[in-house]
Amino acid sequence: MSTTTAGRFSWAVVSPPLAAVVLAVSWGTHPGTFGNVVVGLALVAAVLAAVYHAEVVAHRVGEPFGSLLLAVAVTIIEVGLIVTLMVSGKGDTSTLARDTVFAAVMITINGIVGIAIVVGALRHHLAVFNPEGTGSALATVAALAGLTLVVPAFTTSADGPVFTGSQLAFAAVASLALYAMFVVTQTVRHRDFFLPVDREGARGPVDLDGDGHADPPPAREALISLGLLGVALVAVVGLAKVESHAIESAVDSLGLPEAVVGVVIALLVLLPESIAAVRAAVRDKVQTSFNLAYGSAMASIGLTIPAIAVASIWLDGPLALGIDPLQLVLLVLSLIVSVLTVVPGRAKPLAGGVHLVLFAAFLFLSAAP
Predict the structure, then answer these.
(1) What sections of the protein cross the membrane (predicted)?
(2) How far apart are CA 86 and CA 94, in angstroms?
(3) Beta carbons within 8 Å of 222's beta carbon, 6+ residues apart
(4) Burial 208-243 (b: 16+ CB within 10 A, else e)
(5) pLDDT digits (tens, 9 = 90+) for 179-207
(6) pLDDT higher for 330 or 78?
(7) Terminal CA-to-CA distance of the chain, rounded, Å?
């Protein structure tokens, strides 16, 4: 993928500056119905363009660095959306960060993993991946989710599912440490465990840069995409602030729980990654799909929680991170199924179907708890 491709698909080049123009016009206003539709379309286009250009830049540096950069870019968008909604949103936003992070975890370990397995296994009989790399990624996701989403529901130093200041600081530092250790493992110490696996089980590249894609773009094109990525990220955060009231009003008018706002945010920012994971699975690169899925889950927790912890210094109100019993049951079920999926190193369509049923249950129970 390259910005030459982006030239043919002009939306990727046009969307960031166009979204910036929409932001400049709408900033500080309260758009009507038509205005909200325009802002919403610009927001979606900016998100898609941001991740597209992150993918172009990532392609320049190769796999698994590409999946890592894409996950970080998506997390920046997620943090921006959460903070802007917490600052400018109405009603109780104390659980918004928790609901968004939990939704991101469920979308990645069930939705993205499930569809990647189904697509890969149906097209190639079995979905083949490296259990050593994928297992270490899953273990890190489980540790991060347990420390930041489960533990706060059981601490006793503060009332409710919240951390005290010192507990939140510890969780933030521990999350960053876990994420940093995984990044070193993925990109330096054991990079070969995260490369696509062929049908004979051998690891390694099948093309010049070793990521299963077309050859990387020239440095100039990657720099252009880097600049467009920056514009898109600024536009996403700003447009989210403009659109925040419309998102919450839509959820309220439909009579849905507040947690649905977090689900909407997570679905929005992870949609491009889902598409990228499916494309990789079609090419029989399920390992790349898993890198995207588990990498996004880790970044969503390991980077979002520390960022929200810092932001909570000036945010009003409590920060509820502990998940409720229903969410805990879904998380435990998902992790058990994930372990059984990852251990063999290959999966049938049934395994993907189980993950997708759990994902469907999460979506349904979020709307009708």
Answers:
(1) 9-28, 34-53, 65-89, 101-122, 134-154, 166-184, 222-240, 260-280, 292-314, 326-343, 350-368
(2) 8
(3) 2, 3, 56, 57, 59, 60, 216
(4) ebbbbbeebbeeebbebbeebbebbbbbbbbbbbbb
(5) 989 988 888 777 788 877 765 544 444 44
(6) 330
(7) 42
Helix axes 219-253, 65-88, angle to 10 degrees: 40
pLDDT digits (tens, 9 = 90+) for 87-139: 665 666 778 888 989 999 999 999 999 999 999 999 988 899 999 999 999 99
CA-nearest of 323, 333, 337, 315 to 369 is 323
- Residue 119 identity: V
**Token pair belonging to 177:** 């440490």
**CA 254, chain centre distance (Å):** 26
Output the CA–CA distances (angstroms, integers) from residue 63 to 108, 186, 217, 256, in the order listed: 19, 10, 14, 40
In the DSSP assignment, the letter for residue 186 is I
How far, in Å, CA of 256 to CA of 172, rounded? Answer: 31
CA distances from 293 to 219, 253, 269 (A): 27, 32, 13
The structure tokens 């979204």 sit at 19
- All structural domains of the chain with their residue ranges: 3-367
Contact 338, 294 (CB under 8 A): no
What are the phi and psi torsion angles at 321 (to 5°)?
-110, -25
Residues 6 or more apart whose CB falls under 8 angstroms from that of 166 comprise: none
This prediction's pTM: 0.82
Residue 211: what residue type? D
DSSP codes joined into one string, 201-245? S-BS-SSTTSSSSSPPPPHHHHHHHHHHHHHHHHHHHHHHHHHHH
| Phi and psi angles of residue 89, each rounded to the nearest 5 degrees, phi first | -75, 165
Determine contact, residues 141/301, Cβ cutoff 8 Å.
Answer: yes
